Structure prediction request, 408 residues.
Amino acid sequence: MQDNGINIKVINISKFKTICIAFLLKQPLDEEYVTYNSMLSKILTMGCDKYKTIKDISIKMESMYGAYIHSDILKKGDSQIIEFLIEFIEDKVSLEEIFIFLKEIILNPLLEGDCFKEDYFKKAKELVKESILSRKNDKKELAKDRCIEIMCKDEKFSILADGYIEDLEKIDNKKLYKHYKEILKTSQIDIFAIGNIKENDIKGLVKKYFDIERNYIKDDFNFVYKEKIKENIVVEKYNILQGKLCMAYRTNIEPSSEMFIPLLVGNEILGGGSGSMLFNNVREKESLCYYINSFIYIFKGIVFIESGIDKNDYEKAIKCIKQNIENVIKGKFDDNNIEIAKSNLCKKYKGIIDYNTATIDYYYTNYLADTKIDIENITEKINLVTKDDIKKAFENIYLDTCYFMEGD
Prediction:
C-alpha cells in the first residue's frame, strides 16, 4: 500500500496482448450519497479540463492505438465502488501516458466555477435515471432487488447501488462537486492491473501522478451473522404475465470460512446449471417453472434462488424447492452429482482467466472478502470437497425471505 492509502495489486500475466487497469474508489453504501456516486461514475468520463468533450476523449483514445476507457458503479457487499477501467495494447502505449490520461479524467474534471459543467451535470442525471428505470423495468432484476431490500432492511446491503430517482432532484451541481472532492480524500482507493507489467512500475506512476491529499476511510469487510428467524413471506402484485419467485437462504458462512468452498459445490448441485437438482426436479420433472437457478451472495453468505412461475403454481413450487434444499442438507445426492458440480465449477473458474476484466473482478472481490485464494488454488480446493463437507456447509441453512412478484 502506498503512503497515502492507495492499495496496488498487479496480476502479472503475459497471455494477453493488452494491459487492463482498474481504478476503484470504494465507499460504504450510504443512502444519502449513493445517488451522488452514481452520478460521478457518469460525469467524470464525459469530459475533463484537457479533453473537454467525449469526442476529444475519443480522439485521445484513438491516438493511443484504440485504448478503451469505461466507468461504472459496482456493489460488493455493503460497499459501493466507482470503477474506472482502461485497457490498451501493451507495446503501443507507455504506462506513463496512460497514467497521465487517467489523472486528467479522475482529478481534473471540467468545471464552471465551483461546479461541474452544467450540461454534463444535467446529462449525468438523465443517464442515472435511465439506468435506474432500466433495472426497474427488468422484472427479474427488480424481484431480486425487492427481495434483498426486504430481507436486509437493517443492513447497508439493501441499498441500491444505482441510486434513487427521487434523490436526483435534491442533488445540485455545487453539492455534487463538493462530494466529489470529499470522496477523493476519504474513499478506499484500490488500483488493480493485469498484463505483462511490474508492480514497481505501477507504484512509481501512482506516486508521481496520484499523490493527492488523503484522509481515507479504511472500510474493512465485516461479516454479519444473523440468528434464525421466522420465514418472511412477501407477495407483491405487478402488471406482469410471469410471476417471479425469489427465495433467500442464510447460511452464516463467510467467504474466508473453510466451509465456503463446500457451500459453492453444494450450491452448484442445488441450482448451478442445467444439470442441477432444481432444474431437473422443479422445471423438468414437475414443470413448475420457466427458469430456475441458485447463486451465492458471497459477502453475505446468502444462497439465493430465483425462478419464473405461474401464480397458480406458487405453493407447489415453494414446496418442491424446499424439498430439494432438504435433500442437499441430508446428502440425498450421489457421487455423480458431486463430480458434475465440481467439473462445472472448475470450468467456470478456469474460464475467468481468459478475460482480463473478469480476472481483475475475481481478485478484487477476493481482496475485499479477505479470502486470498488464487484461481488455481480454488480449483484444487473444489476437487477436495466431500459429501460430508457439503452436508456440513448446508446443515444450518434457513429460509429468511420468500418474495413473490405476482403477475396478473
Remarks:
- The first strand starts at residue 6 and ends at 12.
